[in-house]
Amino acid sequence: MKIKLFYSTLLALVIVMASTGCKHKPVGVTPMMNPGATVETPPPAPPYNQNPEANPNGVPETTAYNPDNFTQDRDALAAYTIHFAYDSAVIRDSEKANVQSVADALKQNPSLQLLIEGNCDERGTEEYNRSLGEKRAEAAREALVAAGISEDRIHTISYGKDKPVDTGHDEAAHAKNRRDDFVLLHPKNGA
Questions:
Q1: What are the tens digits of pLDDT across the range 69-85?
Q2: Domain count, the chain
Q3: What is the mean predicted confidence (pLDDT) over 174-186?
């Protein structure tokens, strides 16, 4: 009789617990969207380095940097590529000599301009890496301006994780891909 009463009580307790569940509200959980709701896709952002205000024809006007007005020299400053720590846009002390070398090269020839390409490793979302690459390029730009280079001569772009130099999936490859590349821009005749 006692065993029957024990199992009946245990069964009732299990039913009560299963039907009531936990009383606390979960923390840090993203609420699910209504299954019948539609998601509005925002319009695509204008390409980087473009004026967000459109001209009368509705086409964005580019800022001073137009790739058609320059020839790119990727080799001249390739040795001065700077690398970043994971999830960081802070220029490390060990990389500051490279930034100074880029500044010195620009000071020697005032007609040259510079394109800084911010890059990330493969980890993270497309949006996050694009933003981080932009922050890295802007950090180098600020360091060059502080070194005496006119900001009008420096252009930036972020490639996020789209242009890896090492396609591996380990930390050594990731470390090579977290970088800013410096590209010298030679004005074309008439530009």
A1: 899 999 999 999 999 99
A2: 1
A3: 97
Give the confidence band of 141 by pLDDT, cuts at 50, 70, 90. Answer: very high
Owning domain of residue 72: 68-187
Neighbours of 46 (CB within 10 A): 14
Return the sign of the alpha-carbon dihedral for residues 159, 163, 166, 167.
Answer: positive
With respect to residue 41, please indicate whether it lies within any of the assigned structural domains. no
Give the CATH number, domain containing residue 127.
3.30.1330.60
Q: What angle, rounded to 10 degrees, do the helices at 126-146 and 96-108 form? A: 60
The candidate with the shortest Cα–Cα distance to 119, out of 166, 76, 73, is: 166
Average pLDDT, integer, range 116-131 = 96
6 occurs within a structural domain: no
Q: Which of 138, 47, 55, 62 is nearest to 99 (CA)?
A: 138
- Asked, for residue 30, whether it belongs to a domain, the answer is no
Would you state the structure tokens that stand for residue 48, as one six-digit string? 């980087």
